[in-house]
Amino acid sequence: MSLPKDDARVLSSRWSDGVLLKRDVFSTVERGRFRTDDGEVDAVLRRLDEVPWWSFLLARHLFARERKALTLAKDLDVAPGLLWAGNRALVRGFIDGVALHLAKPRGNVAYFRSAKQALHRLHRAGITHNDLAKEQNWLVSRDGRCYVTDFQLAACFSTRSHLFRIAAYEDLRHMLKHKRTYAPEALTPKERKILARKSAFARIWLMTGKKVYRGITRGIFNFTDREGGGRRLVNDAPVLMELIRKNSDVRDAAIVAFADRRTGVGLYAFVEADRSSLEAQLQSELAAAKGPKPPEHIQVVQALPRDASGKPRTEILQLVAMNQLDLIEPMMTSETDRAFLKDILDSRKNLRDRFNFEADLQQPSH
Q1: If you ran DSSP here, which 8-state letter would residue 306 be given?
Q2: What's the burial of 323, exposed, middle or buried (CB within 10 Å: 0-12/13-18/19+)?
Q3: Span 160-204, pLDDT tens digits
Q4: Per-residue DSSP letters for 43-74?
């Protein structure tokens, strides 16, 4: 399904391809650059030209909801600004930040104060997001502020109706669930009461609608969105990890997902070992095992980046796999991490979709 001529003409003259962020049955999302009247800016494109025919009507409905919400939220400074919108494609501003599940702002009370303010601005403008249970829809900017993204399920209200108040309450409750995960000590007594009290609509949804939704998206649409990884990350990655660890030369491994223009979702395995020739051997072993499809990329590294508890920092690895290297630099907390990043820049595998970020990352930080 191709884009309308007007959409295609604008994008061909004003859009520069960059990194593929996500591709599913509802849209393709890319990060690139867009030429505005004031010059070229970093931006994000959502397009419907690669959506299957059987999901197009729903995809078009979600697209229209996002376009309307972003138009209304344009000047709120809590969501991406809408730079251009066509019939089956739109371009929104790029927010220089990292998704909540990657940033993991533990103990960051200021961030959740900013998140509450962001919701207040949206709700005051009559917008409810309706999809804030997903951590990937919350962004932590470089300056620590909160932004929200992905408004496909958003609703715009002209009055503060009963339905609006229910939806706004659920937005707040989902924000507090994330606060409970990352800064539980900062929850106030009132916030704990909100967490303990779902709206009647939410209770009914959990008992009925959510089961239908999962049946449709996971059964009919074959769609799973755990941190954007889909079914391969949920079902295949654990099996592949077990097979990789059977090799005696492997000390540890981690598998993350990335958007792939050909397959939709690809897997990228980072293997901690000493010899780089192990990559080809592992590919052969995984293919011979007759199990899940092997990862598109296997990269041997001397040491995986780890957190204070010793677990691999998959948030960094996922950004490497997605070629969003400019977002990694603020997350480097030690010289060991920086040494790992340099090694990755020299030998990473997924080079089809990328900006030329390396030059910026090689500069000394200030």
Answers
A1: B
A2: buried
A3: 999 999 999 999 999 999 999 999 999 999 999 999 887 666 655
A4: EEEEE-TTS-GGGHHHHHHHHHHHHHHHHHTT
List the structure tokens of 37.
């009247």
Q: What is the 3-state secondary structure (H, E, C) of 132-148?
A: CCCHHHEEEECCCCEEE
Instruction: Identify any residues that bridge with 361 across adjacent strands, giving them in sequence order.
Output: none
Q: What is the DSSP letter of 364?
A: P
Residue 5 burial (10 A CB sphere; 0-12, 13-18, 19+): exposed
Find the helix packing angle between 335-347 and 314-321, rounded to 10°. 30
User: What are the E-state strand segments in 158-217?
Assistant: none
Position 1, amino acid: M
Structure tokens at 294: 């092997």
Q: Are 161 and 121 in contact (CB under 8 A)?
A: no
| Residue located via tokens 């769609």 | 223
pLDDT along the chain (366 residues), means of 10: 91 90 90 94 96 94 97 95 97 94 94 98 97 95 96 96 94 97 97 86 55 52 52 91 96 92 85 90 94 93 87 89 83 74 75 48 38
For residues 147 and 79, the answer to whether their CB atoms sit within 8 Å is yes
Supply angle C-alpha 74, 78, 81, rounded to 5: 35
Q: What is the pLDDT of residues 30-84, one digit of tens each?
A: 999 999 999 999 999 999 999 999 999 999 999 999 999 999 999 999 999 999 9
Residues comprising the chain, all counted: 366
Q: Which of 152, 198, 208, 149 is nearest to 176 (CA)?
A: 198
Tokens found for residue 318:
């996922």
Beta-sheet strand order (sheet of 39-47): 15-23, 28-36, 39-47, 89-93, 82-85
Q: Are 32 and 16 in contact (CB under 8 A)?
A: yes
Instruction: Give the Cα separation of 173 and 151 in Å (integer).
Output: 18
Query: Which tokens belong to 239?
Result: 């099996």
Per-residue pLDDT, 106: 94
CA-CA distance, 179 to 102, in Å (whole number)? 15
15 sits in which H/E element:
strand 15-23
Q: Say how far apart CA 261 and CA 253 lie, in whole Å.
A: 25
